[in-house]
Write a structure and sequence with these properties.
The chain is an alpha+beta fold. Helix content is 27%, strand content 17%. A hairpin with a 2-residue loop joins β4 and β5. α2 packs antiparallel against α4 and α3 crosses α4.
Length: 190
């Protein structure tokens, strides 16, 4: 999608310590943020998020287009997918026959929030242990949404991967992580 009119830009507030971070997301990428600290992105307008254990997410990186934004933090990986995908997740899991199993795979959709990782090349001001960082950052000036996985009968738009294939890969690896963790715990009667 090519925009003929640039998005409105919010002026930087010198009193806001997160102003530069917020400005990058709003002014460079056109992604909505919500007031407050830390900077949080509004999910559902431009993208949805699949939230999985980092180990499962790393295994699925090969299923994503090279430009697909991915963040990691707190042992979790957040894969950005096309807006509206969160609503499709339960149906896709049922169709793939993963619906009956407890998976550590959640979707954040319309009205949800995601902590905004630091923009590429920016230093943290203060202790941010466990804070989210970009594994694959979105690129300013590019239409990041064009590379996001989506549900499509043709397997995605252009180079974008199919959401069904990505969800199947994530579900498989989430299940493997769950099984590995359950084997590592001692039995209750031993």
């Amino acid at each position: 999608m090519v925009r003929s009119v640039p998005l409105p830009r919010r002026p930087l507030d010198p009193a806001d310590p997160d102003g530069r971070i917020r400005g990058w997301y709003e002014n460079e990428l056109g992604w909505a943020t919500v007031p407050g600290t830390p900077v949080r992105l509004l999910v559902g307008e431009r993208f949805d998020v699949l939230d999985v254990p980092a180990e499962a997410g790393h295994a699925a990186l090969g299923r994503l287009a090279p430009g697909s934004p991915v963040a990691v933090g707190g042992g979790r990986m957040r894969l950005l997918v096309a807006a509206g995908s969160a609503e499709e997740l339960p149906g896709i899991l049922q169709w793939l026959e993963w619906g009956a199993l407890p998976l550590d795979l959640t979707a954040i959709g319309a009205g949800g929030l995601m902590e905004a990782p630091l923009p590429p090349g920016r230093e943290a001001s203060g202790p941010l242990q466990g804070a989210a960082v970009w594994v694959r950052p979105p690129v300013a000036g590019c239409e990041a949404e064009a590379s996001l996985p989506t549900v499509s009968a043709l397997g995605g738009a252009g180079d974008a991967p199919d959401l069904v294939r990505l969800v199947d890969t994530l579900a498989t690896h989430c299940h493997r992580v769950r099984l590995r963790c359950s084997r590592a715990q001692p039995l209750a009667f031993s």
